[in-house]
Amino acid sequence: MNPVILKIGGSVITAKDSDIPEQAKLADIDRLSHEIASFKSESDSKLILIHGAGSFGHPQAMKYKLNEEFNARGTYITHASVKKLNSIVLDSLNNAGVPSLPVHPLNSCLFDNGKLVSFQLEQIKVMLERGIVPVLHGDVVMDRTKGAGVLSGDRIIPYLALELKASTIGAGSNVDGVLDEKDEVIKKITPHSFADMKKHIRGSASADVTGGMLGKVSEFLELANKGISSRIFNASRKGMVSRFLYGEDVGTLIADK
Ligand SMILES: Nc1ncnc2c1ncn2[C@@H]1O[C@H](COP(=O)(O)OP(=O)(O)O)[C@@H](O)[C@H]1O
Ligand SMILES: [Mg+2]
Q1: How far, in Å, from the CA of 175 to the mean position of ligand 1?
Q2: Which of 169, 179, 150, 190 is closest to 47 using CA atoms?
Q3: Is 200 in the pocket of ligand 1 (CB under 6 A)?
Q4: How confident is the model at residue 136 (pLDDT cuts 50, 70, 90)?
Q5: Ligand 2: distance of its center to the CA of 30 in Å?
Q6: What kind of fold does domain 4-254 have according to CATH?
């Protein structure tokens, strides 16, 4: 069966706009785990979860300028930080009754000059066959040319969606969807309509090294061009992840037409 891919933004599960790094929003993480647990108990859908780094990763990657130059210590510090968040998410999911295991992109992905050139998927496939939710995250990844680079959770989505032929794809963030100039949710974005909307879509309001909303929309448009649609919705609101998982029309749909 084709898997569902759900990405939860770092903005949802960490206090991303606080000056104090590494504060996980435990109540939100537990709420999401319970929404996922109740979906998993009623459905035999395979699910892949990806989470962002939020304040476990972005401030560290910024401090060590990982987008500009290779820094071995910064690479370690950033990976160690996001791994802490990943452990918190996994504890919460497993405690809520969702069998889940970590998959660290540092160990399964490779960049060449910033481009994702390999991704080991076999472990993920075995987990899915066994009903386990693989939990990936934004991470640092070794780069054949540059030494290392930052792989955002948003960029993992199109890669996995294409390789694993995902059926339902969505990113839960801290906004109700992609917003227009009046802060109203744009119900649908296509590669055609994007040209007009692009000027209203920006990066993140918080410390973010990976492109914020514009980065997300760009990744999803790439998928839309290949005929695969996806959604951006608000996972900070109670019940929205559940509604997304059940296939409801939430947030912004990004589709080819
Ligand atoms: N047009 C837009 N619609 C919605 N959000 C936008 C828009 N332009 C910029 N943003 C910013 O992008 C943020 C979401 O991106 P990001 O912080 O990277 O979230 P995540 O943690 O979910 O990856 C929003 O909180 C908002 O500050
Ligand atoms: Mg982001």
Answers
A1: 7
A2: 169
A3: yes
A4: very high
A5: 20
A6: Carbamate kinase (3.40.1160)
In sign, the C-alpha dihedral spanning 29, 131, 53, 199 is: negative
Which of 14, 17, 204 for a ligand 1 pocket mutation test, highest count of atoms within 8 Å of Cβ?
Answer: 204
Cβ atoms of 186 and 251 within 8 Å: the answer is no
DSSP codes, the chain = -PPEEEEE-HHHHB-TTSSS---B-HHHHHHHHHHHHHHHHH----EEEEE--TTTTHHHHHHTTTTTS--HHHHHHHHHHHHHHHHHHHHHHHHTT--EEE--HHHHEEEETTEEEEE--HHHHHHHHTT-EEEEE-EEEEETTTEEEEE-HHHHHHHHHHHTT-SEEEEEESSSSSB-TTSPBPSEE-HHHHHHHGGG----SSS-SS-HHHHHHHHHHHHHHTT--EEEEETTSTTHHHHHHTT---SEEE---
List the Cα angle 167/28/99 in 5-degree steps: 55
Report pLDDT digits (tens) over 202-230. 988 887 778 899 999 999 999 999 999 99
Given a contact cutoff of 8 angstroms between Cβ atoms, the answer to whether 67 and 148 are in contact is no
- How much is the average pLDDT of 9-28? 95
d(CA 230, CA 226): 12
Ligand nearest to the CA of 51: 1
| Structure-block tokens of residue 89 | 């998410």
